[in-house]
Amino acid sequence: MLRYTIRRVLQIIPVFFIATLLIFIVIRALPGDPIRAIGGERTMPAATREALIQRYNLDKSLPEQYVLYMKGLILEADMGESYAQRRQVNDIFLEALPRTARLAGLAVLFQALMGIPLGIWVAVKKDSAIDSIVLVSTIFMLSLPVFLLGSLAQVFLGVRWGIFPISGVNDGLKSYIMPSMVIAVSLMASIIRLMRGSLLDTFREDYLRTAKAKGLGRGRVFGIHALRNAMIPVITVLGIDLGALLGGTIVTEAIFNIPGIGFQITQAIILRDNTIVIGVATFLVIAYMMINLVVDLLYAVLDPRIRYE
Amino acid sequence: MSDLAQSAQAADEAVTIGPDRSLTYDAWQILKGRWLFWVGLFLVGSFAIMAIFPQLFLFLNPADTDISGSSCNLREGRLAPSSEHWFGTDQQGCDYYVRVIYGAQVSMRVALGATAVTATLGLLLGALAGYYGSWIDTILSRLADGFFALPYLVGAIIILSALSTQGSRTEFDVLIAIAFLGWPAVLRLFRGQVLQVKTMEYVESARALGASDYRILRKHIFPNAIAPVLIYSTIGMGAVISVEATLSFLGIGLPLGTISWGIMINDAQRFVRAGTDIHLLIFPGIFLVLASLGFVVLGEELREAFDPRSR
Question: B39 touching A, CB under 8 A?
Fold first, then answer.
């Protein structure tokens, strides 16, 4: 297990550098002058301009900038200073992250609370009318874009019926309910299908037949033997969804005016605020890789065959 | 004839009975009894026709079917649906039904174009990675991993900002951005297929007969490894339709003024948020969902029918 862990951790290092270098190169290719963006409409004295260029290392070549940035990030956990907001990216980040985390956390919670029982229900009622109805609805949910669902929810639940706050984050946790429900519904389809398939697979296992043959009660066979084993892939996907959502709530944040990570990065790209773009994108890459690492290691613990591949 | 010979002959017949059944034939037998397959095919067919011959959907329409905007009447802005205007009118007083029908064109064009570029890139690089292996495979696979680690929308926004000069983008920019982020998935899929087919005996015998790498790839590997990519691409077209509309909705996709479902829904926001003129949101929304749904359903049905494990 230790060998596998070391090998797997070493594997993410090149991916990290490729992904961040990719971000760096593309950001550099963005048209527009970031320094001019700081000054806005006013013309900037040449000396100020020169000082700013030096301050943000813009006079150096791209490889040098990349190395300097990585040095700051890895050795001091310093993501640099925002051009436009004149604040440390770390601070902006600490302000935005809890909002996105709340949104993503609630979304995954709702997704689990709705998706898992539905998946179990249709697995038990396999091939019945309700099974077909739910399965067809999941395909429908998969093709329903989040922005459309979000707009509809906002109009009906927010504006027309006034059940939830329309937008913003001023109503505490209440303002996160509708946005996270929207995300949950759009992600729920995959959980329903996975739960159903996984449970049906487990029903065919030998140990389940043995448990039944031993004369265990139905509740015990179902709860302890079938459900617990069938939950493993479902929990994995919920974990991956949580990680993906940190960077995947851009649309929801835009519709409901939630100033989280997605909102910050969209604004920063428009304003050419490159340090924020690079910082946030790098964080998202790290989050994605860490979650994948945890999932892979978890699988290796559960399934020893993977370790000896 | 002895009993023994007779029973041997009977056994022979039992084995060879019926016509040869190919995978395609089997798949067709399954598909033709599945109503979801027909729904998918119907939707995809309808939207394809809508994109190529929009007039076919318009000749019964009571309103003026001219799309150039000359038939719009500013005094009839944002009318509710009626027998005169089936889907109502938009802000400029244009017949909304006509605009929604014409909206299919750009969606289908971008979906087809982006998917074609994605598949071509993914197939070429996937063949290189899978067939040659070693360092080519390492570089391409790690590059694909790097792309996967980047959140999709963040990547799309960055690329589209880079492509747009002076804040204006073209349909082609959107197509390129989507394709640029899509190829790693095809690479992974096709690479796996090539690795499988590469070990087949017919490939080995072709090589023994002195066939060149190019000939082996073209004649033996491509035809036998491509089916999953084609099926994936069908589902992918549905996803592209959705992504393109999302980007246009966020204001970073198609240029403003394009007749597209995403832009229509974006335009509708300022009225809809006040709780009025819901039809401006609903109608392009329904068409968008149905178009995307058609490709996803068709692709899923094909995937299940062609997957021997699901039988």
Answer: no
Q: What residues contact A290, with CB distance under 8 A and at least 6 apart? A: A243
Question: CB B279: neighbour CB atoms within 10 A?
Answer: 21
| Per-residue pLDDT tens digits for B252-305 | 888 877 888 988 888 888 887 777 778 888 899 999 999 999 998 899 888 888
The span from the CA of A139 to the CA of B39, in Å, is: 12
A254 has a chain B CB within 8 A of its CB: yes
What CATH number should be reported for the domain whose range is A1-309? 1.10.3720.10
B153 vs A249: CA distance, rounded Å? 9
- Residue B68, classed as helix, strand or coil, is coil
- Say how far apart CA B243 and CA B238 lie, in whole Å: 9
**Closest approach of B242 to chain A, Cα-based (Å):** 6
Q: Is B153–A244 a contact, with Cβ atoms under 8 angstroms apart? A: no
CA distance B12 to chain A (A): 35
Q: What ipTM was assigned to the predicted interfaces of this complex?
A: 0.78
Chain centroid to CA B131 = 26
The radius of gyration computed from the CA coordinates of chain A, to the nearest angstrom, equals 24
- How many residues make up chain B in this entry? 311
Sequence letter at residue B188: R
Q: pTM for the full model?
A: 0.81
